[in-house]
Amino acid sequence: MALAEMNTTLAENARGPGAGEFAPSRKRRRSVFFTVLRHSGALVGLMVLGAIIAMAATAPLIRPGDPLALAGTPLLWPGQDLAHPLGTDNMGRDVLAGIMHGARVSLLVGVAATALGVLGGVSVGAVAGYFGGRIDNLIVRFIEIFQTIPGFVLLVVLVAVIQPSIWTVIIGIALTSWDTIARLTRAEFRTLRQQDYVSAARSVGYGDAHIILREIIPNALPPLVVTATIMVASAILSESALAFLGLGDPNSVSWGAMIGTGREYIRTHWYLTAIPGGFIVATVFALNLIGDALNDALSPHLART
Amino acid sequence: MSRNRRILLSLRRNLLQAIPTMFVIVTLGFFLMQLAPGDVADYIAAETGAASEEGIHALRVQFGLNLPVLEQLFAYYDNLAHFSLGISPRYGAPVSDMIMARVPGTLLLMGVAIAVALLLGFAMGTTMALLSRRLPDRLLSLLSLVFYSVPTFWIGLMLIVLFSVHLGLFPSGGARTIGGPSEGWDWFVDRLRYITLPALTLGLNYVAIYARLTRAAVIEAQRHDYVRTAIAKGLTPARVIRRHVLRNALTPIAALTGAKVAGMLGGAIVVETVFSWPGMGRLAYEAILAREYPVLLGILLVSSALVIVANALFDILQSLLDPRVEVS
Asked: Is A192 within a domain?
């Protein structure tokens, strides 16, 4: 038997039953999917999130043109004019158009910032947890320093100094959220690297990169997925808070910025504040419901009693 | 180990960690400021409207902005060593004075918010645990998740609509009635009316966190023998919960509160902006509007320092609550 062949055979064995929880079988994956679906909260969450995504996707069809442009008589209440079912703001901008186009911004920022943060956090945490030793100490100290800085204050300073745009907002949120996922990844790696299947993979001569990417990360995924879901939710909250403070992209409509404008009219036209806020709550609530359900489904030992 | 020795050890460890931490934060902050388009001299020039090239150059020399970056960095360290955060270009006042004047307001708001969140969170969590898996538990779980999903600034504005605009129960902003009572019971009631809505707003997220934690702690404690004993010796349920169950939940709650101080300082920016509360967060908002970067940097440094102090205090609190917590 050629050496290369033997390696594969051994590695295949290391994936087999009894070799730790590696490569969840098709059957188990389906059961996670159904557990999530059976969770009524998750169902609600998925439906709400689906509706928000549909709104974002159809925005250019249903409300074409610039959502920041004048559309009708200013300060119409919702239902007053059927052309503007959610009313208009002080500048005569259509609230529905703002909501639909704003959904695009919220989702984009939420997903992009989380993707960047997860990428950075997993890389840093994996290196720390896998190699240990001096580099681990250094990284842990660095993460601790980051956790000392109030994240949102840093985000505000960062975006204010570099000038707000959708990309500075995304990068800023990623820079202030990678530390959670880095800590989590490090902890997962520290436990997983001692598993038998990792020793098995090492003994057949696989390199560190292979072991990290192909052996450990797949097993560390469940908690990472749960955390990433919650991170999308908090990224959307951060973006809206930034836009509310006037630190959003000035050229795109955002739910937080709509609340910031509506605030000036809160005594007479509170719906300008209430409507965009309601959509933020719905989106974030849906994501948190999904995160909760994923948590219950993916980590049964942590399931809430 | 005696109690005092534990406190000293814990303080020493925190202090040793604080020095490199602050050093890194200060250095990061300094280079962050280098990213800003234009410098202080440009802003003063823009403010006054009519500044010649020579005038701007003179300002740069005055602020040391013509020096190499490294020299500016060392000058910045030197200033910080003398507790100086520089001068605000717009107000001409020392940044450290401007910030220090606002710190008590923020601390008061955060303290009250934590107290409100603890009270509500204990109540909700205990109810949920005692009725575990029944309808009230499910509904309260959903409610706490809603609390966790609500943007703070938005719920603050909605509370203003309901309680200030429509019901007229609480003022919509500020910290006290101008020219109002300055001492005694009336003063207290006046302050209380002003702080209720902002503290509730800032604490709402934490109600959800505390409720979940308390629920888990109470359910966990119900299994233990000491709780069974307490019930068997005839203590009322309320007393069992208060004396035996919640007391054990205090250690994780103290740890969690310490870990959330940083997040709360961030939340204070939006809450203080919504309620015109005279604190550090409101100052940050004013600094954003006026593009006062030295003030923003100062707020970042001071709030990081506050987190360090708070962590040290919560470490001590934790080791007092539970002597088993290791101090190394």
From this structure: yes
The tokens 């006037």 sit on which residue? A246
Mention every residue, 6+ apart, whose C-beta is less than 8 A from residue B314. Answer: B254, B255, B257, B258, B261
Q: What is the pLDDT of residue A81?
A: 74
Of A141-155, A210-224, B72-86, B141-155, where does mean pLDDT reach its minimum?
B72-86
d(CA A261, CA A259): 5
How many interchain CB pairs under 8 A, A with B? Answer: 140
Which residue from B24, B33, B145 is facing A288, i.e. has the nearest CB?
B145
Provide Rg for chain A, Cα atoms: 23
- Rounded CA-CA distance B151/A101 in Å is 19
| A173 vs B: CB within 8 A | no
Residues 6+ apart with CB under 8 A from A77: A87, A269, A271
Chain A contacts of B145, Cβ < 8 Å? 285, 288-289, 292
Q: What percent of chain A has pLDDT over 70?
A: 85
Give me the amino acid identity at A241: A
Residue A103 in any domain: the answer is yes
Boundaries of domain holding A141? 98-279
Is the CB of A157 less than 8 angstroms away from the CB of B21? no
Q: CB A152 to CB B263 under 8 A?
A: yes
**A88, β-bridge pairs:** A94
- Residue of A139, A149, A301 to mutate for B, most B C-beta atoms under 10 A: A149
Please list the residues that pair with A94 across neighbouring strands.
A88
Tell whether A141 is covered by a domain: yes
Q: Give ipTM to 2 decimals.
A: 0.86
Residue B243 pLDDT > 70, yes or no?
Answer: yes
Residue in chain A lying closest to B262 (CA): A150
Per-residue model confidence (pLDDT) at position A13? 52
Residue B297 has its nearest CB partner, among A157, A273, A304, at A157
Higher pLDDT, A23 or A305: A23
Q: How many domains does chain A have?
A: 1
Other C-beta atoms lying within 10 Å of the C-beta of residue B65: 15
Residue in the structure block whose two tokens are 């630190």? A247
Q: What is the mean pLDDT of chain A?
A: 83
Assess contact for B45 and B56: CB atoms under 8 A: yes
The string of pLDDT tens digits covering residues A64-77 is 877 877 777 777 78
Burial A56-83 (b: 16+ CB within 10 A, else e): beebeeebeeebbeebeeebbebeeeee
Of the listed ranges A24-33, A211-220, B51-60, B250-259, the one predicted with least confidence: A24-33
Spell out the residues 6+ positions from residue B243 whose beta carbon is closer than 8 angstroms to its own.
B230, B235
Q: Looking at residues B259-274, what average pLDDT do you find?
A: 89
| Residues 278-297 of chain B whose Cβ lies under 8 A from any Cβ of chain A | 284-285, 288-289, 291, 293, 296-297
Q: What is the DSSP string of B151-186?
A: -HHHHHHHHIIIIIIIS--S-SS-SS-TT---SHHH
- The CATH number linked to A128 is 1.10.3720.10
Residue A229 confidence class, pLDDT cut points 50, 70, 90: very high
pLDDT at A26: 47
Is A113 part of any domain?
yes
